[in-house]
Design a protein that fits this description.
Layout: E1 4-8, H1 20-32, E2 37-40, H2 44-50, E3 59-62, E4 65-68, H3 70-80, H4 94-116, H5 118-128, H6 136-155, H7 162-182, H8 193-205, H9 214-218, H10 221-234
Helix pairs in contact: 1-3, 1-8, 4-5, 4-6, 4-8, 7-10
Length: 243
């Protein structure tokens, strides 16, 4: 069996990667029961080598092959490793929609709370950019934040106040809590791709490093139970347990 390597953004406080898409792949590998190595990517040169077209992470290296994009990685894993199919033809129609919603909508709430809210950004920047040499450590966080805030504004979510976003997020979490109250998993009767896509984001909102949105997750008992259930099903030697 060829060696599997997950190329990712480095871990952050309470989670195996600062990127929810990298966490999604960690959890897919865990659900499959596959052994893999982890390589944190810091260099733009290395990123260009493994993903020259898009220059994004995660990337999964399988032998000499590189698979990019978390959804495509899961498709590859299902096609090549039959254990615990993640994408199933029998899935309810809403499962694929939930994955897309998590990847392109709920994701922006995580970006907002990490980059736009200063109470979260300031300690995150100290952690995330700590290995940069001076004076880059002083300059790069502000440059990256400015670019990210511009993207948040263009997307639309950056035009709302934190209190408005908090209420929107509370509504989304309430819907998810209701969903796992009606079904054992987001994906229905079995854990699947919707669970893997939503888990990293809800877990990020629940972290002690995110004090302004953590209380929202704590309002929903069933959602907290679901988080721990996904963690139990998908944990590996490289993952961080849900607190």
């Amino acid at each position: 069996m060829p060696e599997i390597t997950l190329y990712q953004f480095a871990a952050d406080s309470g989670t195996e990667s600062a990127s929810p898409f990298c966490v999604k792949v960690h959890r897919a590998l865990g659900l499959k029961g596959l052994e893999y190595k982890v390589r944190n990517v810091f260099s733009p040169k290395e990123l260009s080598r493994i993903n020259p077209e898009h220059k994004k992470l995660p990337v999964l290296g399988v032998g000499s092959e590189f698979i990019v994009d978390s959804t495509e990685i899961i498709k590859y894993l299902d096609a090549n490793y039959s254990e615990s199919q993640i994408l199933r033809e029998s899935d309810p129609w809403f499962v694929a929609m939930l994955e897309d919603w998590a990847d392109v909508s709920l994701y922006w709430f995580a970006v907002y709370y990490r980059w736009q809210v200063s109470e979260h950004f300031d300690p995150f920047a100290k952690r995330a950019f700590a290995k940069l040499p001076l004076p880059l450590r002083w300059v790069i966080p502000g440059v990256v934040r400015k670019k990210t805030l511009k993207s948040l504004h263009a997307q639309g979510i950056g035009r709302f106040s934190e209190s408005e976003i908090r209420e929107q997020l509370r509504g989304h979490l309430a819907h998810l809590d209701r969903l796992v109250s009606e079904h054992e998993w987001m994906s229905g009767s079995e854990i699947g791709v919707a669970d893997l896509a939503i888990f990293p984001l809800v877990r990020q909102f629940s972290l002690e490093a995110m004090p302004l949105c953590r209380p929202l997750v704590l309002e929903f008992e069933r959602l907290q139970t679901w988080l721990k259930a996904v963690d139990a099903k998908t944990s590996t030697e490289h993952t961080v347990a849900v607190a």
